[in-house]
Write a structure and sequence with these properties.
about 325 residues, alpha/beta, Rossmann fold, 2 domains, six-stranded mixed β-sheet, three-stranded mixed β-sheet, 11 helices, disordered N terminus
Length: about 325
């Protein structure tokens, strides 16, 4: 059963603020915007043009994915015949290809990507024409309100009915500013990618996550999410730590309403342990800061190095006093 929103209370609320229209009839019109969008022929043709772009983007994406899987499969077969350095060289090529694949997805489908840009460019003139037409007909036929009956929303009103400023004046007249109260920004910290067997054996991915959270949790400027909140949400979304990328991390971070998130990777080297930390803005996926660090294999040294670098990592977002 469809549920309809009763528009009468809205109109009563409007009239409680608007001066009575002396001797004038209040005229309301309706429009089914869902139907208009579906049957507006120029707009539908424009969307067909958009479908051609989508098909090509999907083709390239699928091609990159197939090539990536092919290279991974080839490496598994070649491992017995390769030297350790040869394996590292081949894995590096795969990592670069995987980065290219994820960069492509972000560039096309991410926020502000090619898809959204092209969709806006193609449909903008037709949507502008649509709303100009609604406004012109409303003025010509002297309507006070035009209501979209498919969305139960008002899409046109006479300027004389706009009570925005009156409402704000009433609501804010007793407002007392309190500049000392600040809302803490939320940070999510993810397990670091474990880049080699020794790191995986030591479980440094989640241990690094634990150390970073511990080093930041007492910050007066940020709320750092508990380790369990991040890892449980990843599990519920079917995202595995060993395959985590910035797009998946952004999805989890936004699902948990964080403002920022930290990802990175950890690997062993001859001098000990090397790690890379990256700080992103959750909503835009904009990378804010990147920091690298090294530590000896001793756990205390590694924990201390991570703590120091983590505090430097978030320095660009610490509020200025």
């Amino acid at each position: 059963m469809k549920r309809y929103i009763n528009i009468i209370p809205i109109l009563v609320f409007i009239f409680s603020f608007v001066k009575p229209l002396k001797g004038a009839e209040f005229k309301i019109g309706t429009i089914d915007m869902k139907k208009v969008m579906k049957e507006y022929k120029d707009l539908q043709d424009a969307k067909k043009d958009m479908a051609a772009y989508e098909t090509e983007w999907r083709r390239v994406q699928d091609s990159l994915y197939s090539l990536l899987q092919e290279k991974k499969s080839e490496l598994k077969k070649k491992i017995p015949m390769l030297t350790p350095q040869g394996i590292l060289d081949e894995q590096k090529k795969i990592d670069e290809l995987e980065a290219e694949y994820h960069d492509y997805i972000k560039r096309i489908w991410g926020e502000g990507g090619e898809y959204s840009k092209k969709l806006k460019a193609i449909t903008r003139p037709y949507l502008q024409k649509l709303y100009n037409t609604i406004n012109q007909i409303a003025k010509d036929e002297n309507f006070d309100l035009i209501i979209d009956k498919s969305a139960k929303s008002i899409i046109y009103t006479k300027n004389s009915l706009d009570i925005t400023n009156e409402v704000l004046d009433y609501l804010n007249k007793e407002y007392v500013s309190n500049t000392n109260v600040e809302t803490k920004k939320r940070i999510g910290v993810f397990p670091l990618l474990e880049k080699d067997k020794d790191v995986r054996t030591m479980g440094l991915g989640k241990r690094s996550q634990q150390y970073i959270i511990a080093s930041l949790k007492n910050s007066p400027n940020f709320d750092v999410l508990p380790q369990g909140s991040i890892n449980n949400k990843m599990s519920s979304m079917g995202i595995r730590p060993e395959n985590l990328n910035e797009i998946e991390a952004s999805q989890v971070a936004n699902a948990l309403n964080t403002d920022y998130f930290i990802i990175g990777e950890v690997t062993t080297q001859s001098q000990g342990i090397k790690f890379v930390l990256k700080l992103y803005e959750s909503r835009t996926m904009r990378i804010i800061n990147t920091i690298e660090g090294t530590a000896q294999n001793a756990e205390d040294a590694f924990e201390q190095a991570l703590a120091n670098k983590s505090r430097k990592l978030i320095a660009p977002i610490v509020p200025k006093k």
